[in-house]
């Protein structure tokens, strides 16, 4: 791994995946794949930070030679995408997870417990309890090897990265109040827009220093880049911390209003390879993909 500030005069580009690099179906358009392959072959300083985990990110980006550290679970984990080597891990305090999980369940929620058992990353969840959750489960069925669905699932994990709920806005706000009242120091309760589900919000409970802003700064440090040379791309509320941490931020078409407000520019849609095309422009490379 490069030493600190080895690339002090070079920008580091970090992109979100879902809704930003990937299309609405969670797939990487063929034109984007070809353009990214070209950039990575030329050793472009490019990586990503996502709410996904290592396994399903790898599936979505299959065949692309990303090597710089990447962020997963909204910044709770930083790892090498080529080898899976874990470089940084920010987890919930073990004693905090059971009471928070019990309180969410008692309020009628069916939270996902995202964590690790040994070296295996897992997402434990009960069957979906609302239409948005059902849509999420359908989209992940067969493509996310972490997902384990069972009634009354036992939360037996060696490390918990986050508790996550997806529901109607009013319900999530009420759940957030419950969780905030119980959260001990070092635990953050955050709420952000569910961009794929209008009228819905996502509740995430994780370590206080596990967000995309902290993660992109740590990625820069680990890879030998200056944190004031960060350029990021995103679309949703969970991208706001990395927008705030970056020198320049670009929102794709369809990004939430809050993300657009923080963006230097709103570029095109993910389905039309907006991020790879902007990267070619910023890196002063010709765009050869019709």
From TrEMBL:
<keyword id="KW-0378">Hydrolase</keyword>
<dbReference type="InterPro" id="IPR023214">
    <property type="entry name" value="HAD_sf"/>
</dbReference>
<dbReference type="GO" id="GO:0016787">
    <property type="term" value="F:hydrolase activity"/>
</dbReference>
<dbReference type="InterPro" id="IPR036412">
    <property type="entry name" value="HAD-like_sf"/>
</dbReference>
<protein>
    <submittedName>
        <fullName>HAD family hydrolase</fullName>
        <ecNumber>3.1.3.-</ecNumber>
    </submittedName>
</protein>
<dbReference type="Pfam" id="PF08282">
    <property type="entry name" value="Hydrolase_3"/>
</dbReference>
